[in-house]
Amino acid sequence: MAKATTIKEALAKWEEKNGQKPSEAKEVKLYAQVPPIEKMDASLSSLVNCEKLSLSTNCIEKIANLNGLKNLRILSLGRNNIKNLNGLEAVGDTLEELWISYNLIEKLKGLHVMKKLKILYMSNNLVKDWAEFVRLAELPLLEDLVFVGNPLEEKYSADSQSAWVEEATKRVPRLKKLDGIPVIKQEEGDEGEN
Asked: In 149-161, which positions are buried (b, 16+ CB within 10 angstroms) versus exposed (e)?
């Protein structure tokens, strides 16, 4: 089997293709490398100006080495082998969007550090308990969540889509959009407002 592509190699390829130094770029796309990237190694710290980083469709198992990415706003890690959300602390003050669908995440521990997170796309993971889901309420700005395809959502949607929406929005009341559908709140006295 071919050896994994390192971040350093992927960045060198990216620089060659784009004619720009990765350290100066606002957007860096390292998705679907052949052979795939397996580790978020220390070379990532060179991306000091990066606002959007895409590492989707690789074989990454752990979120790591985001320390130098002081301007990161969007992190795309969909279609990897990520099992948990540890490692996000380094971008907790800047990250606004986390795209992490199609991974192996069961627990949402480590997410509470994301003070600016507005958008979380985490469909098709392994979250099965409300105890984990309620951790999303710790995110002060979260308003757009895609959670479809997690065992928890599938269990409730099997009965009816509205049961899932009702239960989910009760636990994370700030949501404005759930699974791509605007959340309509029926509260007394709120009719006619936004």
From this structure: bbebbeebbeeee
